[in-house]
Amino acid sequence: MRISLTPRAALVALLALPVIVLWPQWWVLLVLLALWALVVLADALRAADPRRILVRREAPAQVRLGGTVPGRLLLTNPTARRARLEVRDAWNPTAGLDDQHSRLVVPPQERRAVAQAFTPTRRGEHRCRQLLLSSVGPMGLARRSARAEAPGRMLALHPFGSRRHLPSRVQRLREIEGLAAIHQRGQGTEFDSLRDFVDGDDVRSIDWRATARRRSVVVRTWRPERDRHVLIVVDTSRTSAGRLGEATRLDAAFDAALLLTALAGQAGDRVDLLCVDRIPHVSVLGSTRTTVLHDMVAATAAVEPALVETDWERAAATIEARTRRGSLVVLITPVEAQVLNSGLLPVAARLAKDHPVVLASVSDPALEELAAGREDLERVYRAAAAERARSERTGVSRALERVGAHVVDAPPDRAPQALADTYLALKAAGRL
Hints:
- The chain is an alpha/beta fold.
- The protein contains 13 helices and 19 strands.
- Strand 8 and strand 9 (about 140-155) form a beta hairpin.
- The N and C termini lie far apart (about 65 Å).
- The radius of gyration is 33 Å and the shape is elongated.
- It has helices at about 5-15, 15-20, 25-45, 165-180, 210-215, 250-265, 290-300, 310-320, 340, 345-350, 365-370, 375-400, 415-430; strands at about 1-5, 55-60, 60-65, 70-75, 85-90, 100-105, 110-120, 125-135, 140-155, 190-195, 220-225, 230-235, 245, 245-250, 270-275, 280-285, 330, 355-360, 405-410.
- It folds into 3 domains: about 1-155, Immunoglobulins (Immunoglobulin-like), CATH 2.60.40; about 160-165 and about 225-430, 3-Layer(aba) Sandwich (Rossmann fold), CATH 3.40.50; about 190-225, no CATH class.
- Strands 1, 3, 5, 6, 8 and 9 form a 6-stranded mixed β-sheet that branches. Strands 16-15-12-17-18-19 form a 6-stranded mixed β-sheet, with helices on both faces.
């Protein structure tokens, strides 16, 4: 515990200035200083002991990023003195506490509450271990301060802004699954029904036994299989730490992963998640279709980019151990020139032999703006650099497509929809 002065103590000391001017003697100054010190000390000793104040926190456990949730501090004064308290709650700034400083009076043997509101500005875990309690004396000249243990933990969940695109994709999914029947034969489909042959049908879909029985040409119709396995692998290495507008590339990657998870759940597919950099460190495995989205939001809330390179060989071993042949593997990682040297290209080629592989990348929208600049010489050079970067990304995309991967490269505001559309295209083509 420590004792400190308030601004009022300085004002009281200034009241002695006229006396010093009238009697400019050293002993007068000494007497006045002693009297002032005694009054301040007496005021501090009459303040309630802050170490005896009981503090209990009621903080929200979870909040979606961008939302506001209430909380409160409950302070109980078990002493016989009236407690004039100043409270400083030490949450980190991104927790979004509306007011970290509070003042209140707690009568003896009573309890008071401090209402709080949290509007976090950063996804992830927010903690507060202690708060600072200051008890002000009756005359307001001094305060006694002490730290109180009041641990708090709040998890700011991903806002899932791409949720608004889900209804239109679900409608398209319903058309693929049967509202507008697919009359084609493709890999990874299930038999649906028989119907008469019409011009344009694939002759490979003719059911010759049914044709012989009916004495008319009959074809089989197919529908996409359900209960397929989708493994989403999110790269959380240093490349995911780059900021694209107001958020990081990792936030945009999670947004795309959540939209795909919700859509695949509507399709009846099983979705798992794996976050990798140097090692696989966060996973969501075996969740049901009704809980997988919630589990994924909770598991990824505290994931932050790691300033290391991704070990794609180790990631590939984990992917192969957790999937069976024909599972859809979605790799969400930047498509950049260094990908060719990071080991991703041979890993994608190996995975594409046994699985449909989609490589989703979130591009930097600033490249589009830089590439359009032509106003002066400096902007022309920047435009040339942006065009070169875009050309390199195109080359990497083509290299990945040549080994069998489907590449999706879009800016943050379009990446979730582009990935969902690719999933639907694979469904429509009978690849899933």
